[in-house]
From TrEMBL:
Residues 4-343 form the FAD-binding domain. Pfam families: FAD_binding_3 (PF01494). It comes from the Bacteria. Its cofactor is FAD. Keywords: FAD, Flavoprotein, Oxidoreductase. SUPFAM superfamilies: FAD/NAD(P)-binding domain. InterPro entries: FAD-bd, FAD/NAD-bd_sf, RIFMO-like. Its EC number is 1.14.13.50. It comes from Pseudomonas chlororaphis. This is Pentachlorophenol 4-monooxygenase PcpB. One of its GO terms (molecular function) is pentachlorophenol monooxygenase activity.
Amino acid sequence: MNRSDVLIIGAGPTGLVLALWLSRQGVKVRILDQTAGPGTTSRALAVQARTLELYRQLDLTQAILDQGHRVPAANLWVKGEQAAHLPLSSIGADLTPYPFLEIYPQDQHEQLLIERLERFGVTVERQTELLSFTDHGHLVSAQLRGADGQEETCQAFYLAGCDGARSTVRKTLGIDFPGGTYQQVFYVADVDAQGPALNGELHADLDEADFLAVFPLAGEGRARLIGTVRDERAEHAETLKFEDVSRRAMDSLKVQVDRVNWFSTYRVHHRVAERFFSGRAFLLGDAAHVHSPAGGQGMNTGIGDAINLAWKLAAVLSGKAEEHLLATYEFERIEFARRLVATTDRVFSFITADGPIANLLRTRLAPLLIPKVTAVEAAREFLFRTVSQITLNYRDMPLSCGSAGHVHGGDRLPWAHGAVIDNFASLDYLGWQVHVYGVTSDALRAWCAERQLPLTVFDWETAHQAAGLARNGFYLLRPDTYVALAEKSADPKVMERYFEERKIAL
């Protein structure tokens, strides 16, 4: 009988990242997908700054930067005129090494992940379907049907449902997926085009016309158009062609399309599963949450799910943590998913709502308010932090403890850099580690050395103070680089107590 540590259902970015992170930690995985091959077209484009930071752990970041397209700014248009310009590169320059939006289409993204996964001897089993599974308490047995139509039973200690919005895993578990479906129909078109909106930046139209966003792709004049169809044509979305789409928004953005490379339509849902796990089965990505594409958050959130769960599964499977650690996956990810769906729902409703009041807000009020709001540095920074996901934190949750400076347990470690210092340099390490800014005690050094816990001591710099870090305390970082424990003292007993209380071994 085929047996693995973790059986992963679904080989989109979420499933592939989970398989890659687990394989890197020595976990035996099996990953399968119903499709005959990876996608050749894609809707997901945006790779946010936080994802790029996390990808450093598996040396993925530079490959994406080399192959993708950096978007340095975003623009909002109203009635054919540019109403606001957001220079992402200057807003986020002191917040992250990646102060931009990286455009890297999902089909390319998946291919990169597949190639990296194959280095660990793991290949995606294509045209393989999960028929059913049973959780026996100590392991999971699953019934599969392969490409040749033959059925087999396999076993795994854990099952990961990365199988999309129609998840077989979620349905088998009987977990509700409350929410709804927007009435608007979306279209996606990969085009070669001309015009001022084809300058390598992101452009979005806020108008009485159908919503339209222009995402630049690598290569001159290449772009992805994402828009809505809101009139009677939406009733026949499955038969729509690009020629049927209204040109009002394109004319407003002065987009002249020369060639359409591919085109598709789809409806958008906003739903969050009531649970993210049951027994030994987990839900990740679109199987757990779906929402509007506002802000380019979907794929990044699924990747965040995978990285959060991967280190916890590895710890439990290696005997370094007890199974209750896995429950923190739901604690940490479900609240973020709920907030994200609520936020993107409000944004999406604003930009797509019909009626005279909605049109008045978009075309009269928004052009007046948006430039004023975005002129305020704090507002620009808040917007960048939110969209880039660097503001995501796990404060006040079971694995988060303490505070030092402006940093709390559960926070993303702030980036502090200078001419010769960069406190993110050690974050390519996949495991627990400790940061100290200033000086520390011999006792802390000895405690870390005895347990082979990497300790990095940075000479105190003004950049550390500017980032909100505390002098001479310490920060215990989880394997996913979030702060587990922030402590003002240099007493190793505080760290020892942290691990003992959570029954985690190094």
